[in-house]
Each structure stands twice: as structure tokens, then as C-alpha cells.
Amino acid sequence: MAQAFFGGIHPNDQKGATNKKPVETLPPPARVVIPMSLHIGAPCTPCVSVGDEVTVGQKVGEAPAFVSAPVHASISGKVSAVEPRIHFSGVPVMSVVIENDFNETPCPSLTPAPDPDDLTPEQLSAIIKEAGIVGMGGATFPTHVKITSGLGKVDTVIVNACECEPYITSDHRVLLEEPEAVLGGVRLLARIFGVDRVHIAIEQNKANAAGMLKLKIEEEKAPAVVDVLPTRYPQGAEKQLCQSITGRQVPPGALPAAIGCAVFNVVTTVAIYNAVYHGKPVTHRVVTVSGSGVNEPKNLLCPIGTPIGDLLDACGGVKQQTFKILMGGPMMGHAQFDMTAPIGKGTNAILAFADKEERTVEHPACIRCGKCISVCPMRLQPVFLYQYEAAGMLPELEAAHVMDCIECGACTYICPGRLHLVQAFRAGKQKLNNAKAAAKAAADEKKKEG
């Protein structure tokens, strides 16, 4: 490790419930809901209609812009609706609803790339785009955009297998169960960026995966090296990981490419391998279902678009005392209120919490202890950001760099006053974006009048 990042916390990793459980295949859902927005960027345009028969891997949503990624059917069957449906973000999103025929008919047009070892970086990027591959660690940024913007700039490629959030073990199980696919994707990334080796970053609490990968790399002479990093949250955050591996710090407001780095989640890396060598788009993903409210925690391979409730049912349901269900980890996940909301490409966990884990208080209060400042990995001052947002002081909020907040939740975790800090920062960012949009609209209107 070149350098430790600033701040961070050491929560109990809570991974023991599922880290030794092999991935199970979820029983086929009766229907899936495929949102046209499963990524950062422009939502897709539906390219199927009600009554159409679709097959597994068939494109059902076309990407309308460069910063977008197509979406594909995860089951075979008939399209029963093309309409807004509840999204895991909590708002209705245009979606394609498919009723399962339980035949699992593969799309006949999906074939492996001919001579994949002879493809140029640009050709590989095009395949990755058509496969709908995005950052599957949760960020969901279209992978072809990251590749295209980094060509000629990147000298360090990092595969992020840290999986630093508590409870989540889906990446860990993929490492253990699909090492050949991981290293296949690593070879492709090395070729795309023209590097001699790719760094595979793993935290110390996954020593079995690190040891197994080191043996595989040696056996296959793969262009990779395993970097075992201290177990410290948020070790897997993109900017912090770049610093841990290279010692370089990403400037405020910039991306890793600015310091010659490109970071890809390990499941994204496997998806790249499957797209190039097997012609498979992103239709399924592994999801950890865990938490104190889950009767039988598991790692499940699920079709994209499966309702959250189906995953919980496959794990014996939730306990009566369950008070919260999250999509994602306990630090950065989003609370869900509708169990018909579907899982997406970036869904790595569904967590249910019960009874004694409730820690909210009726009247959160800042006690001016400064702990939030000491743990912030971006060197921000959360206590002041919180006050500026509460008072509606948007210029001060922006000047204090709220847009650099990565919403890791370290400040909320450490706060003895139980302030809803990350929630406030998300609201503050939205207020700033709304204010800028309103100012632009007013300026455009003034131009028209003039």
C-alpha cells in the first residue's frame, strides 16, 4: 500500500452470516420490472411494446445518448406493460414489465465476439456498451464512458474487490466462485489500457479470496497483482482506493482519470469478460440478503428487475420486529417502502434490520464534538455543512464543498448526537442543483425576451 487515506471508520463488518455461503440461484420470478433508468445518465427508450415476446438477453431499452447504457430482458416471456412503475429510488420510472414463460429462452442474436484477442480498445468498448455494463458496485456509471474517457490517460488500472460496507458479501463470493472470469476481465482491461498489470484491491477480511487469487494469477501468468489493504471503511470508495494503491490524491471535483487511474468493480470486470467471450449482456447479478431482520441470510443470483419481496421470500421472509429494509449497504443504502420495487444492476444487497438495531432518537442534536470532521475521508467539515443546509445558506454550502461529499456515511455513523448528516447533504446537493437549473432557465428566458 502506497498511502493510507484520511479519516475513515472501523464498523463491525457483520459479514459472518453470508461470507461462507455459496451463491444460490433465486427461484424464477413470475414477472420482472425492467426500469429504463438502471444507470447514471440519460434513461433508455423502450424498444418493445405490450404483447411482444422477448428472450433472455434481448434489448428492451435503447440508450439514447453516449452517457447511457441499454437494458436487456432478464427472463423470457411476454411484455405485459410499458409504463411508469415504482423504482428503487422511490419515484415512478418508465419500465418494461415482462411476464415469465419459464422457458429461459436465450436471445438468438447474442454471440461471442469473433477473435476477441484481436479487438481494439474501441471495439471492446463498443461491445461493453451494447452489453449494458455499468459500475456494479453501486455507482452504475456506464463503463464504456469510463473507458473511452480514460484511453491515453490511464497508467494504473484497479479492480475494486474491497467490498468495504458491512454485511455485503456478494463480491467476495464472486471472487471465490468465478476467479477465471475475474482474471479474464482483468486481461481485457490490461489490453484496453495498455498496462502491464492490473491491481486487484482486496481488504484483509477476505484473506481466503486474496490467497486463492494469488495462486490463480501465478498459475495463469495473468497480468495482475493482488493488493491486500487494511479493513477500513470506506476503503472501497474510488478516490480513497486510488490513494491507497498509488499514493496520488484525486483533486476536488475531478475523477480518477485526472491522476492516471481507472477503477472497476470486480463484478463489472466479470461482466466485461462475459460480454466479450460469451456474448452475454447484463441480465443477472449476485445480491446479498442479510441483516438482523432476515430469517435465513443468503447470497442469491437474481434476474435484474426481480421484486425485492421475492428475494426476501427466498430467504424465509423477515422477522416481525423488522423496522427498516435497505437496498445496498447500511452506510450508503437507500430505505425501501415498496417491496414490489425491482433490483437493479447496482444492487449488491438487500438488508433488513429488526428490533434492537434501531438507533434513531426523537431529537437529534449536535454536541460540537468534531468527530464527524475527524472521520470524513474527503476532509470536509460535516458539522458546518449540516448547519448551512438547515439554514438554507446555499452559497456557503457550496463554498464548503458539499458537492465533494461522497455520501459514505462515516460522519453519520460516528455522530453521538444521531444527526441525519448524509440525508442533509443529499438534500443540500439537490437544492444547489435546483437553484442552478432555475438560474439557467431564467437566463435562457431572458435571452429569448431580449
Main attributes?
single chain; 450 residues; alpha/beta; six-stranded mixed β-sheet; 17 strands
Structure, briefly:
By secondary structure, this protein is of the alpha/beta class. The protein contains 13 helices and 17 strands.
Model description:
It contains 13 helices and 17 strands. It has 450 residues and is α/β, with parallel strands linked by helices. The protein has a 6-stranded mixed β-sheet, with helices on both faces. Helix 1 (121-130) packs antiparallel against helix 2 (143-150) and helix 3 (170-177) runs parallel beside helix 5 (207-220). The longest helix is centred in the last third of the chain and has 29 residues, at 421-449. The termini are far apart.
Beta-strand proportion? 15-25%
Count the DSSP helices. 13
- Helix share of residues? 25-40%
Overall SS class: alpha/beta
Q: Which oligomeric state applies?
A: single chain
Largest sheet: 6 strands, mixed
- Radius of gyration (CA) equals 22 Å
CA distance, first residue to last residue: 59 Å
Using DSSP, what is the number of strands?
A: 17
Shape: globular
| Arithmetic mean of pLDDT | 95
Q: Please write the string of helix (H) and strand (E) elements.
A: EEEEEEEEHHEHHEHEHEHEEHEEEHHHHH
Unreliable stretches (pLDDT < 50, length at least 5) are none
Strand order of the largest sheet: 1-14-13-17-15-16
Helix and strand layout, with pairings?
Layout: E1 24-25, E2 31-35, E3 45-46, E4 53-54, E5 59-62, E6 71-72, E7 77-86, E8 92-100, H1 121-130, H2 143-150, E9 156-160, H3 170-177, H4 179-193, E10 198-203, H5 207-220, E11 224-229, H6 238-246, E12 261-265, H7 266-278, E13 284-290, E14 298-303, H8 308-314, E15 322-327, E16 334-335, E17 349-354, H9 371-375, H10 382-390, H11 394-399, H12 410-414, H13 421-449
Parallel strand pairs: 1-14, 9-10, 9-12, 10-11, 13-17
Antiparallel strand pairs: 2-8, 3-5, 4-7, 5-6, 7-8, 13-14, 15-16, 15-17
